[in-house]
From TrEMBL:
<dbReference type="GO" id="GO:0005737">
    <property type="term" value="C:cytoplasm"/>
</dbReference>
<protein>
    <recommendedName>
        <fullName>UPF0291 protein MAMMFC1_03354</fullName>
    </recommendedName>
</protein>
<dbReference type="InterPro" id="IPR009242">
    <property type="entry name" value="DUF896"/>
</dbReference>
<comment type="similarity">
    <text>Belongs to the UPF0291 family.</text>
</comment>
<dbReference type="Pfam" id="PF05979">
    <property type="entry name" value="DUF896"/>
</dbReference>
<keyword id="KW-0963">Cytoplasm</keyword>
């Protein structure tokens, strides 16, 4: 789970890496925390996309040409 403390630590390590060198342990921790954050964001996006339902807004007798060319809409 991504908590405010995890985000603060990610930012702290990023700041430190810009100002000076990270130790090997810090680089490993930074990589791990970044991966957790990215996986969390991906899961949120997937959950949002899974809730989307596509609806056809056209009636069977519309004259936009969508029934003739299924790729159009």
């Amino acid at each position: 789970m991504i908590t405010p403390e995890v985000i603060a630590r990610i930012n702290e390590l990023a700041r430190k890496s810009r100002e000076s060198c990270l130790t090997e342990e810090e680089r490993t921790e930074q990589s791990h925390l970044r991966r957790l954050y990215i996986d969390h964001i991906k899961a949120q996006v997937k959950a949002s996309l899974d809730c989307i339902e596509i609806q056809d807004q056209h009636s069977p007798d519309c004259d936009c040409g969508c029934k003739k060319d299924p790729q159009k809409h």
